[in-house]
Amino acid sequence: MLSRFGPLRSLPSFRFLALTPPFPGEYDGPKMLTKVPGPKTLELSKRIDGLQDPRALHFFANYSKSIGNYIVDADDNVMLDTFCQISSLAIGYNHPDLLKAAMSPEFAQAVMNRPALGLMPPTDWPDLMQDSFLQIAPRGLSHVFTAMCGSCANESAFKAAFMAYRHRERGGKPFSEEELSSCMHNKEPGSPKLAILSFEKAFHGRLFGTLSVTRSKPIHKVDIPSFDYWPMSPFPHLMYPLEDHIDENRKEEERCLAVFEDIVQHHPVPIAGIIVEPIQGEGGDNEATPFFFKRLREITKKHGIAMIVDEVQTGFGASGTWWAHELWDLPSPPDMVTFSKKAQASGFYHTLETRPSEAYRNFNTWMGDPIRAFQLRTMINIVKRDDLLNNVKETGAYLKKKLEEIQKRHPDHISRVRGVGNFLAFDTPNVEWRTKMLAMCRDMGVNVGYCGSVSVRLRPTLYFMRKHADIFLTILEDAIKKCK
Amino acid sequence: MLSRFGPLRSLPSFRFLALTPPFPGEYDGPKMLTKVPGPKTLELSKRIDGLQDPRALHFFANYSKSIGNYIVDADDNVMLDTFCQISSLAIGYNHPDLLKAAMSPEFAQAVMNRPALGLMPPTDWPDLMQDSFLQIAPRGLSHVFTAMCGSCANESAFKAAFMAYRHRERGGKPFSEEELSSCMHNKEPGSPKLAILSFEKAFHGRLFGTLSVTRSKPIHKVDIPSFDYWPMSPFPHLMYPLEDHIDENRKEEERCLAVFEDIVQHHPVPIAGIIVEPIQGEGGDNEATPFFFKRLREITKKHGIAMIVDEVQTGFGASGTWWAHELWDLPSPPDMVTFSKKAQASGFYHTLETRPSEAYRNFNTWMGDPIRAFQLRTMINIVKRDDLLNNVKETGAYLKKKLEEIQKRHPDHISRVRGVGNFLAFDTPNVEWRTKMLAMCRDMGVNVGYCGSVSVRLRPTLYFMRKHADIFLTILEDAIKKCK
């Protein structure tokens, strides 16, 4: 199967500004030996069923054989990976710099002596923070709260928003006796009725606070108690191509902003913070324009509401900038920016104003994990050295242009091509067709993810280059044709 | 300072049944060069203040110099560690077996290719689960949900309890249209009003669900919205020594059980699950007898309520058994047992009945981390080979006996010596005296933790031996005398 991609490499050249080095030792293309899931995956799935729920499994992967943009499954099928562990693989599999970093004594000590970072951080922690998180801190946000995962990062950000809101309400005075005693019973005033607002189709996680602001799919939420007084506001549904629908889209965003401002002013429960994704990843890759986000910043600022930008899925380079919200040119920075996934380290950036009034208020045992800061530091060095942000911009632009061409050739099956950087998506006619088409892609050697009700999302590594894009595009169009 | 511990080693021998090998290359005793925090810690604290909240910091630690039961701080002070990263260090610092495991190519690949375990687990995952989690599974619980931290483990267990409860209520029928649409607005019936019951002074975490069941200290809870319909039940306050207060303690437990059963029967919101710690760690090392827990199991079973045992702090050997609840001899296993901290890997054990009705319901990106399962596997091998559970039993018994002797000599300052294995605690007269006395201990070379309002908790490694106990006891009594 490798040979079929030979001709692609001789196509007339698309102009690249940067010359990204290839991923060391990567495969030349997909190589499929069986259908996916293959017999070995099925055997392993049966084995694990006695121990752990296997129903969501796509396949078992052989991570020692996976290299760069290619994932190898238990049946030795080599697939181009455009889903990348649900958008959490920035650099590709088995990058030699990362393996080398992981095998250093410094790393081994950090992994096996995991500290309680809030009590007894390692002596190199200030340097490590400086060389990792602070290297890529969004403008205006120089403080970091470190956590273990994206949901934890978001919930800790909500807590910081609530604490800052109540601190301001108290005028900086200490807690009252009534607050301290009532909170032990989960009652007001100590456990106040305050809300976090989120947007329709948002996904922010699956713990009790984050699930309350997640609005993408019922299967995540049904049967779980939620904060019923946390409001939801509509998120724009844009028409594509954007340049042909400027007026309609502006009108749609103004409609959403009007509802938003109305909720902010009239919701019966005060709103301490809002959380918003730059592009709603799980909910269907729904975008809004910088105009929308600028207005959100203005309105939240005016009403003293914390603006939390959830960059768990969009962050760390996928937009061609370190953070997707850099593309908005906000009048003032967000109050908090949360991260995880591709950054591998999790947490949120914030201002000094959102540091809690006292110690131990936003705290836990591990407070993140230094090894993921090590990994982040190494990844930042790789991205800079290999100019991967420019690679994302250029490969992304090429990929988007080619997807638009495919859309023109198959308008009944592919629509609404959209996205920034290599964080791209398109829509399909319905869920059944999407399922069939993506299974076809996988059997032909490309692992592709979906989102929303009918969308397909691309979440390749930052090393995803034109040669990978061409392989993906050929297989995609092949699958579309076969599924017609 | 080392020399002062010389004489202790020539005391008449306490009979040991097992011969635990010493931790390789460990220090002979504490060695203090400065007060704690020393000048280098203070300098680093100032540096980190611009990046991260430093107010809870005890000291910066030099983890490459820390060995076994000894932690070395930034000022080169060597301290015997009985707090061990808030009870999360099972084996000691820099164990050669763990460092060796961490520096293997297998480990490096696992750490740098972190998988989405629910979608694309590594081919060795079933074997790894078998050799780690399943090796020490509590009786009757052979399924594992893996997570990233203790709070996430507890919240995922709550979700499993809610799903199982509603599934039973629906008689196994599929979700209704109304459930699916209402849950998107956080409203009933899709987002049901159902409760998790917890106990007074319990600590189960700090995210929105776990914080709602945490009842230890207001500083964790104040200003954060909570589930106000989740009830709290009293937890026994026992009198010591236990053998002299059998009748009073039974009466106290019966009082608590009567309130508990009353809440279960009459709480206006149905209770889907309860969560309980074998010993309430953060809340003051409050114990109950097996009688109490057996009755909890009987009552929850009778009313179809999930019993979740939170072994985040008590689990992985501190009780001298793998799990503290093994000491209760329950009539039937708990429905779920959660773990994290010392086990390093996090999650919960459960029965097949508490597996959700469909895929993707209890799910997230990473679903835990294979490297922590690797670490768990290596730690289990060390514990077995070096007979560390017996070491905990024997050292713990010795330590408790000696603490009771100190209590007799200083009855105005030390009371209620209690605990199992090396999970021990005692009370002090008040918080000011405790603060002063523990600071004195630290300056003399022992790092000790506290809990509850006036308690001191010991959380040493499983390698904590009589020689360490003697050093701790000498310094403790010295500090008590100096603080009188």
UniProtKB/TrEMBL annotation, chains A, B:
Q: What EC class is this?
A: transferase
Q: GO CC: one term?
A: mitochondrion
Tell me which UniProt keywords the record has, alphabetically: Aminotransferase, Pyridoxal phosphate, Transferase
Q: Does the keyword Transferase apply?
A: yes
Coiled coil start-end: none
Q: Which cofactor does it need?
A: pyridoxal 5'-phosphate
Q: Which InterPro entries did the record assign?
A: 4NH2But_aminotransferase_euk, Aminotrans_3, Aminotrans_3_PPA_site, PyrdxlP-dep_Trfase, PyrdxlP-dep_Trfase_major, PyrdxlP-dep_Trfase_small
Fetch the NCBIfam families from UniProt. Answer: GABAtrns_euk
Q: Which family does it belong to?
A: Belongs to the class-III pyridoxal-phosphate-dependent aminotransferase family.
Protein name as it appears in the record: 4-aminobutyrate--2-oxoglutarate transaminase
Q: Which organism's genome codes for this protein? A: Stygiella incarcerata
Upper taxonomic classification of the species? Eukaryota, Discoba, Jakobida, Andalucina, Stygiellidae
Q: Which gene encodes it?
A: GSST
